[in-house]
Amino acid sequence: MTTVLYDLPGPRTRRRHRYFGLAGTLVLLALVGWILALLFRTHQFAAAKWTPFTYEGIQELLLTGVANTLRAFGLAAVGSLVLGGVLAAGRLSVHRPLRWACTLLVEFFRAIPVLVMIFFIYVALHAEPLTALVSGLTLYNGSVLAEVFRSGVNSVERGQGEAAYALGMRKTQVMAHVLVPQAVRAMLPAIISQLVVALKDTSLGFLITYEEFLHAGKLIASNLDYDLPFIPVVMIISPIYIGMCMLLSWSATWVARRQRRNPKVEAGEVAAPEPATLQQEDHRARG
């Protein structure tokens, strides 16, 4: 059997793939074992190094950091989606000055490192740490999402828009009711990937003294009085960051599945054909 893109692998190829998979698994297990051996050798799992995390004050500090991280991410995510939609609409505009202006803004904010924008807003404009962090994340991720939105709309078949225009629909109606709903499914993975980037970039807030999750971990580690205090803190913070990113990705997958299972347009019921002779059909056609 063959497929459109490639031939199905034979027995020798499948056996070779199993060997490669087994070798890769052994390498990963060896790497994990080496890291665990180093951690045990430096006594990172000693009870004295993990007891402080049972204190109520440290737990409250970590929870406050998580709440501040989610707050900054929520504001930046909403701002990025709105800004990306506005810039994408400008880039798709038929008015050349507006299209050029939006293109210039998108390329400018995409080219500047997000940390530079955060520091500029915080230092030059004397903004609050939360404002500087959210503004920098919004400008950068919004410009990236603008390209995602524009590419998604342009990926829809050209005939869809032409058919809508032929029915007398205006451009805003074509975008809102025809092109964007079809492009959302194609854009959703890229949108979620960029939002995950925004969630991870909230950790840059600790550089401008914003009390987010990483800032809370740094504050805890700097007050512990044993050797290598940052390693237990990293082992606490990293799984929480990974969990938040995975939860965001799973939410996007759930939304995509619901879109596939619940289309807006459902097929209507068609009556079963009744037997008829050619003379009856010809009589009905003339009648």
The class by helix and strand makeup works out as mainly alpha
Tell me the strand percentage band.
under 5%
* Helix percentage: over 70%
- Average pLDDT score: 82
Largest beta-sheet characterization: none
Helix and strand run: HHHHHHHHHHH
**Tally of individual helices:** 11
Radius of gyration: 28 Å
* Low-pLDDT windows of residues: none
* Overall strand count: 0
Beginning-to-end CA distance, first to last residue: 53 Å
How would you sum up the global shape? flat
Question: Can you describe what's shown?
Answer:
- The chain has helices at 11-41, 47-50, 56-91, 96-111, 114-124, 129-155, 158-166, 171-201, 213-222, 230-261, 278-286.
- The chain is mostly helical.
- The longest helix is centred in the N-terminal third of the chain and has 36 residues, at 56-91.
- The chain is flat.
- The model has no long low-confidence stretch (mean pLDDT 82).
Short overview:
The chain is mainly alpha-helical.
Helices, strands, pairings?
Layout: H1 11-41, H2 47-50, H3 56-91, H4 96-111, H5 114-124, H6 129-155, H7 158-166, H8 171-201, H9 213-222, H10 230-261, H11 278-286
Helix pairs in contact: 3-4, 3-6, 3-9, 4-6, 5-6, 6-8, 7-8, 8-10, 9-10
